[in-house]
Amino acid sequence: MILKTKSISIRIEGELVPTREGKTILEAAREAGHPIPTLCHLDGIADVGACRLCIVEVGGSGRLAPACTTPVQDGLSVVIHSPRLAAYRRMIVELLLAERNHVCAVCVSNGHCELQAMAAALGVTSVRFPYRYPALGVDLSQERYVLDHNRCILCTRCVRVCAQVEGVHVWDLMGRGIHTCLVSDLDQPWAEASTCTRCGKCVQACPTGALAEKGKAVGEMVKRTEPLALAAGRKGARA
Amino acid sequence: MSLPKLATVWLDGCSGCHMSLLDLDEGLLDLAAQADLVYSPIADAAQFPQGVDVTLVEGAVSSQEDAARLRLIRSRTRVLVALGDCATTGNVPAMRNIVPVQRLLQRVYVEGADAGAAVPTAGVPPLLPQARPLHEFVPVDVHLPGCPPPPKAILAAIGDLLHGKPPKLAELKFG
Amino acid sequence: MRKITIDPVTRIEGHARVTIHLGEDGEIERTQFHITQVRGFEKFTEGRPYYEMPGITARICGICPVSHLLASAKACDGIMAVRIPPTAALLREAVHCGQFVQSHALSFFHLSAPDLLLGMDSDPASRNVLGLAARYPEIARDGIALRRFGQCVIERIAGERIHPGGIVPGGMAEPLSQSARDAILKELPEAFAIARRALDLYQSILDRFAPEIESFGKMPSMYAALAGPAGELRLYDGRLRFLNPDASLAAEIDPADYAAWIGEASLTDSYLKAPFFKPLGYPAGAYRVGPLARMNVATRCGTPEADAEQQRFRERFGPVVESSFHYHQARLIEALYGLERLRALLEDPRICDRHVRARAEVNSPEGVGVIEAPRGVLIHHYKVDDRGAIVWANLVVATGHNNLAIGRSIEQVSRAFIKGTRIEEGMLNRVSAVVRAYDPCFSCSTHAGGVLPLRIELYGPAGEKLDEMC
Question: Taking the model in full, what pTM does it have?
Answer without folding.
Answer: 0.94
